[in-house]
Amino acid sequence: MRRALLIAVCGVAVLAAAPALAQPAAAARVDRTIADVGSAYYGFERLSVTSEDGARVYRVWIATPKRPAPPGGYPVAWLLDGDAALTRIDEGLLARLDGGDPPVIVTIGYEGDRQFDVLARAFDYTPPLSDGPALDPAGRPGGGADAFLTLLQDRIAPEVARRVAVDPARSLIWGHSYGGLCVLHAALTRPDAYHAFVAASPSLWWGYGAVLKDAPPFLARSSRPDLALTLLVGEDEVRGRGSRPHTHPMWTSVPAGATHDLADQLAGAGVDVRFGELPGQGHGGMLAASLIPTLLSLAGVAPAPGEPL
Length: 309
Known about the structure:
Blueprint: H1 34-37, E1 42-50, E2 57-65, E3 74-79, H2 82-87, H3 91-98, E4 104-110, H4 118-124, H5 145-163, E5 166-176, H6 178-189, E6 196-200, H7 206-209, H8 215-220, E7 228-234, H9 235-239, H10 258-268, E8 272-278, H11 286-298
Parallel strand pairs: 3-4, 3-5, 5-6, 6-7, 7-8
Antiparallel strand pairs: 1-2, 2-4
């Protein structure tokens, strides 16, 4: 069996998880990142890719270890909300990755000067609905996750593979909030696309729990790929500390423990799934708190004292 990722979070007991809101700090700008200043351990190449409908332009950074590729190719991490993710990656982290089996890191963001393009990500990261228009509580159109995931597989992945040797058997996709929702949708609807799926604070409430409808068909498959799924929430999310009041019925449309319950349901059916609660983390903080141990785990690097396992 393939090595499973990640995080049991030091044996912390898991309680019911409150619905996670998808409200990033849209005004946060993309400043100079490690891709701009350079690294002693990684080289960076930038691609620009336009969506099939011409409405979104993706800024894709390919970070390649400067160490020679292993015979089967590098492991590869695909990061949604790539502009925000890249701001959490620094030379210290890359040095730690270089001490293990460093992965290629592919960040998928959007052209512009913001860490989060809230309109684009609302469309790309949410699954389609069969019973009405796909709108989130802020009125942003959604429902484009299938087209986005197809673009990743059919257009961006081949471009990456032409530039660097990667090992598809050691591929991981990570996302947070709406990105976590997209990763979970991918795991349940195209589980052979990646080996490992890490969904941090997934917005299960979107579309009144639409992603939960993906689970029964997934479990009914006669055969399933050997995937590893990790579902993560923050301790403060679980306890409702620092969260905004729920002013739209969509935000309260799933049971409080839906993420935990889904993990139990999948594990009970034999799926390699982990559920973790990260101490002291709220919804926003879960981006970096989940990303860094995900990359370290993919590289086979032990966490530092106090970091999640």
